[in-house]
Amino acid sequence: MNPVQLALRVLRADRRTRVATLLTAVGVAVATALVLLLASLPMAAEARAERALWQQPQYELSTGGGATISWSSSTDEIDGELITRVDVAPLVDPADVTLPPGIERLPGPGEMLQSPDLATLARERPPAELADRFGAEPVGLLGDDALRFPEQLVVLVGHSRDTMPDSAMELSSFGFGDAEPDELLSLLAGVGVVVLLVPSLVLVASASRLIAARRERRLAALRLAGATPAQVTAMVAAETGLAAVAGAVLGVAASPLLHRLAAFVPWAGGTWFAGDFVLPVWLVVPIALVVVVLVVGAAVAGLRRVVNTPLMATGTGYARKPLSWWRLLLVPAAVAVFFWTLTQASRQDGTMLPMLVALGVLMWSPSLVGPWITSALGGVFVRRWRRPAALLAGRRLRDDPKAAYRASAGVVLAAFAGSMALTLMPSLEAESGYYSQFREEVLYLTTSEDRAAAIVADADEALAGYGLDVRAARVDHADITSGQELHMAVVATCAEAKRLLPGTEGLTCRDAPAIYASQPLDLAKAGVHDPSTGSTVPLPADAPVAPMPAAADVVVVDPVLWPSGAPAQGVSVAVPATEKSREIVRTALLGASGGEQVISKEMMLGQQDTQLADLRRVTVIGLVTASLLAGVSAAISTAGSVMDRRRTFGALMAAGTPVRTLARALRAEAALPALVATLGAGALGTAVAVGLFGLVSQSAPVFSPWIAAPVVLGALVALLAAAVCAPALRRVRAEPLVDE
Question: Residues 75, 84: contact at Cβ < 8 Å?
Answer without folding.
Answer: yes
